[in-house]
Amino acid sequence: MPELFIRKTILINKDRSAVFKILNDFHLWPNWSPWLILDPNATLKIDEDGKYYRWESHVLGEGEMKIISEEEAQSIHYDLQFFKPWKSKAKVSFFLNEKQKSVEVVWTFKSKLPFFMFWMKKRMEVFLGMDYERGLLLLKDYAEHGELSFSLDFEGILPFEATPYFGMHNKTTHTEFKNQIATDFSKLFPYMDEHCKEIVSGPPFCIYHKFDVLKNRVKYTIGFPIKNIITFSNKNFHIGNLPQMKVHSIKIKGPYKYIENAWMAQTMHMQGKKIKASKKNPPFELYLNDPNTTKENELETQIAFPIR
Fold it and tell me: How many Cβ atoms from other residues are within 10 Å of residue 292's Cβ?
């Protein structure tokens, strides 16, 4: 049977005992868990001593987790069992290592796939690994500040009006995407400011035509909505149109580094609620305020998935 193994680490500016207390009490997990934050309506049953919990959710499925052994401020080991959407078991561990005034948190996951799902091994290790990376960032945020630095607003299904836009296409690797999109906006902003600032009708956005983590490639369009179509001579930019449609919307308020939580919440809610994504129109982000004039914790980004 194909074996799955995930190992991710992070440094947290807190002592080991404080981090250990968060990890060995399931009453605290809804405050930072990379899965539980995706569905505030999930039903949780947590034992009084905080050593066992069970979850049920249309978005997250069903399962249970229990602490099977722990060494004070050093390590914790768990049994994890999923019941829905499919049955599986896993061994999960945390190891806490002192690093001067910080603690190195090591999070591991071990499981096996049925032999007929061997083809899923790489995909699951990549995406579970991303979940673990999300989770460690959330744990660090919660351990160091006592709360998360962002919030998710599950807006649901909303209308979206047809919108012409001025923008530019590009493609890059997943690993270089954040740097590349920043470079692209640094080119688009000045040209827009000089040639069509007076007809901009809303906040900038990014359309994701392709976002393939496994093949390490991203194809996207950035742009500004405009009131009317214009003509210009620079072939690096173009005029396009976002059609009238309905979208499933989740808004995140807080630093952009936590944006993957909104995307995962969107993906899980779309799957769990059986809403059918549009095959014609790709998902997009709307940047609702200006990072140059807005405090990081006040930034708002809308993640919109067109639906059928």
Answer: 6
**Half-sphere exposure in the Cβ direction for 264 (13 Å, CA):** 20
Q: For residue 266, give the nearest of 16, 4, 39, 28 by alpha carbon.
A: 39
Measured CA to CA, the distance from residue 306 to residue 236 in angstroms comes to: 27
User: Are the beta carbons of 175 and 130 closer than 8 angstroms?
Assistant: no
Helices (H), ranges, the chain: 16-23, 121-145, 177-195, 259-272
Please classify residue 241 by burial: count the beta carbons closer than 10 Å to its beta carbon, then call 0-12 exposed, 13-18 middle and 19+ buried.
exposed
Query: Which of 42, 33, 22 minimizes the C-alpha distance to 137?
Result: 33
Secondary structure letter of residue 199 according to DSSP: G
Q: How far does Cα 240 stand from its chain's mean position? A: 28
Cα–Cα distance for residue pair 271/13, rounded to 1 Å:
36
DSSP state of 201: -
Mean pLDDT within 275-298: 92
Cα gap 260→267, rounded to integer Å: 10
Tokens 């809403």, residue located? 275
> What pLDDT does 116 receive?
56
The contacts of residue 267 (CB under 8 Å, 6+ apart) are none
pTM of the model: 0.91
Mean pLDDT of 276-299: 93
CA 181, CA 165: separation in Å to the nearest integer? 17
Provide the token pair at 174.
């997943």
Quote the CA–CA distance of 292 and 284 in Å, as a whole number: 21
Beta pairing class for 151-160 and 245-253: antiparallel
Q: How many CB atoms lie within 10 A of CB 112?
A: 14
Give the span between the Cα atoms of 132 and 126, in whole angstroms: 10
Longest dimension (CA), the chain: 68
Cα–Cα distance between 142 and 150 in angstroms, integer? Answer: 11
Query: Token pair of 229, please?
Result: 């179509």
CB atoms closer than 10 angstroms to residue 71: 11
Q: What is the pLDDT of residue 157?
A: 94
